[in-house]
Amino acid sequence: MVENRPMTLLDAQATAQRLPYPALLRQVREVLADPSVQVPDRLVQPLPGGGSLFVMPALDARIAMTKLITFTPGNAGTPRPAIQGDVVVFDVKSGERRLVLDGPTVTARRTAAVSLLAAQELAPKPDGPLLVVGAGAQGHAHVEAFIEVLGVQEVLVASRSAASAQALAGHARRLGARAKFTADADAALADCALVVTCTPAAGVVLSGIPRPDAFIAAIGAFTPAMVELAPDLCRHCASQGSVVVDTPLAAQEAGDLLQAGLDAAGFPTLREVLLQAQPGRRGPVLFKSCGWAGWDLAAARAAAG
Description:
alpha/beta, six-stranded mixed sheet, Rossmann fold, ornithine cyclodeaminase, domain 1, 11 helices, 305 residues, ODC_Mu_crystall, Ornithine cyclodeaminase
């Protein structure tokens, strides 16, 4: 008689505890170098009312997972999160369901870990100061990750909601950083070597010209119709610095780059940056992240142990 192991259902807090940033960062690196990793195309099904249903599978030689979430932009600024759902993790050999992780927590933490990896590899000044545009779940995750892993000591927060920005700045101060709200994200670019944009991407939130030593992680826009960065800003980074994308899927999904008239397929991916010798970069670096089930697989690996 075969005895099945019990399945573990983790809430948001328990999921976060399974995903400490150093371990998650290590798994993101390892997923990019693991030849057994397979990531089928994700399914994005539009829903009535403007939301979307995402089905995102991935697997390696040991585990298989699927992230099943809804993305509802209309929930921004309400008590309901914009992202809701679960990540289900299976044992490849036995077929057993091992874990069910909180989908929004996985999404926030794995995205921050990918931005961390890009900053470690690409940022001229990875210790900041940091400007975060957007004070939702992704803003919180990036502030926590950048303070913990990169040692950022100064944070500026911009948001369409001053109250949310003040709350995130207060959270950053409790983590040991100097932090404050800024009403003008473009003006703050002059003071910040690290920038993260993590908004619902319903319109341009950053249009100023970044410093020559700036690193910008733009994560909010993951469809051609979404945008956070002004076209001139993207073109400036492409001509005066460099652009790196998270995966080749950015060629079809990176609204910021596509709306700037840039060929996203011509930019190096994060995998290429890690696996190939890269020449020294000059000028601002734009890292465009659109999301990938491989990042969720990295989180599943970290959580499964």
